[in-house]
Amino acid sequence: MRATHRSARAVLALGVLAVTAAVVPLTVAAPVGAVETTAVETAAIGNGSIAILRIPRLGGDYAQEIGEGVSERSVLNTRIGHFPGTAAAGEVGNFALAGHRTSHHAPLLRINELVVGDEILVETATSNVVYKFRSLEYVSANAIDVTWPTPRSESPATTGTITFVACNPLRSTAERIIVYGVLDRVTPK
User: Fold this and answer.
1) Residue 5 has pLDDT above 90, yes or no
2) Less crowded by CB within 10 Å, the N or C end of the chain?
3) 177, 112 in Cβ contact below 8 A?
4) CATH 3.40.50.450 assigned to 5-188
5) Could you tell me whether strands 93-98 and 80-82 are parallel, antiparallel, or unpaired per DSSP bridges?
6) Which helix (H) or strand (E) holds 16?
């Protein structure tokens, strides 16, 4: 599942663009250093989803399904998508996710409202994973290095990270808002 930085960048750039541009479904190559996830780690929790995302800051009823992939038609039109080839929830590496802010039920509409230390909860079939919000930034629409095992760095991953990729500003595809969290704890079910 290895790819060169050049090929991973080219293919992942298409995956990031697929977040907002209705393009045909595509396969996303794994970035260099990506971990392979096992069937247990990505086991479906029901309805074709691999996990449920909860962010208390966004409301007690905030619960979003996470599907595997970033295809508009099969994933992003109905839920948040997990970039293939990135870490699974709770693993060392980057659990990279994409979602809409203004269309298709806008699961990441208020992602910019997080405050340092806010909990980001991911419930998988086998564990409850807690990340803590760390920071956000705005990048160009083709900045795919945010999905690397250590976001925006070619250094090997040494900790777990969650990264959200969404369009910005609202109702525009001009740039991306990137939200980062760091792994706090994993509790088996």
Assistant:
1) no
2) C
3) yes
4) no
5) antiparallel
6) helix 5-17
Enumerate the domain spans of the chain: 5-188
What the block records as the tokens of 176 is: 């991306």
Q: Are residues 11 and 28 in contact, defined by beta-carbon separation less than 8 angstroms? A: yes
Q: What pairs with residue 188 in β-bridges?
A: 127
- What lies within 8 Å, CB to CB, of 187 at 6+ separation is 127, 128, 129, 130
- Other Cβ atoms less than 10 A from the Cβ of 6: the count is 9
User: What does the block give as tokens for 52?
Assistant: 């449920």
- What confidence tens digit (pLDDT) does each residue in 9-59 have? 333 433 443 333 322 232 333 444 444 443 334 455 767 899 999 999 999
DSSP-derived 3-state class of residue 55: coil
68-95 tens-digit pLDDT = 999 988 899 999 999 999 999 999 999 9
